[in-house]
Amino acid sequence: EVQLVESGGGLVQFGGSLRLSCAASGFAFSVYTMKWVRQAPGKELEWVAIINGGDSSTNYADSVKGRFTISRHNAKNTLYLQMNSLKPEDTAVYYCALGNARGRGTQVTVSS
User: Fold this and answer.
1) Under a CB-based contact definition with an 8 Å cutoff, are residues 83 and 27 in contact?
2) How many C-alpha atoms does 31 have within 13 Å on its Cβ side?
3) Which of 11, 18, 78, 93 has the fewest beta carbons closer than 10 A?
4) Cβ proximity of 20 and 9 under 8 Å
5) pLDDT digits (tens, 9 = 90+) for 19-72
6) The pLDDT of residue 79 is above 90
7) Angstrom distance (rounded) from CA 13 to CA 87
């Protein structure tokens, strides 16, 4: 059974940083493409960042490019999202995702 457990969210001021983690289990983590997605109140789910299995190549939504970094530690079955220069519009519940499967998410709130 696929399990994804996010952590690391919280309240941070404008311009601050947070590092999210996602502990994965129940599948061969290292070979799969993983994503971070987010959902702000009243808005649709938004793709944030993606990292491929194998070569760990990455891609980012324009809204976070240059500020967020996705990475993975395959030996620990863990996915990360380093978020710098946070803005109030980054406020959302952040989820790690394997295909359509997601964890329960972690809340990120950025105050202005």
Assistant:
1) no
2) 3
3) 11
4) yes
5) 999 999 999 999 999 999 999 999 999 999 999 998 899 999 999 999 999 999
6) yes
7) 8
Length of the chain (residues): 112
* 80 neighbors 21 (Cβ within 8 angstroms): yes
Instruction: Determine contact, residues 58/73, Cβ cutoff 8 Å.
Output: no
Residue 54's pLDDT is what? 84
CB 30 within 8 A of CB 12: no
Percent of the chain having pLDDT more than 90?
Answer: 97
Q: Is the pLDDT of residue 88 over 90?
A: yes
Q: Smallest Cα–Cα separation from 8: which of 55, 18, 16, 41? A: 18
The closest of 68, 56, 59, 71 to 21, measured between CA atoms, is 71
Rounded Cα distance, 63 and 87, in Å: 10
Specify whether the CB–CB gap between 96 and 22 falls below 8 A.
yes
Cβ atoms of 24 and 78 closer than 8 Å: yes
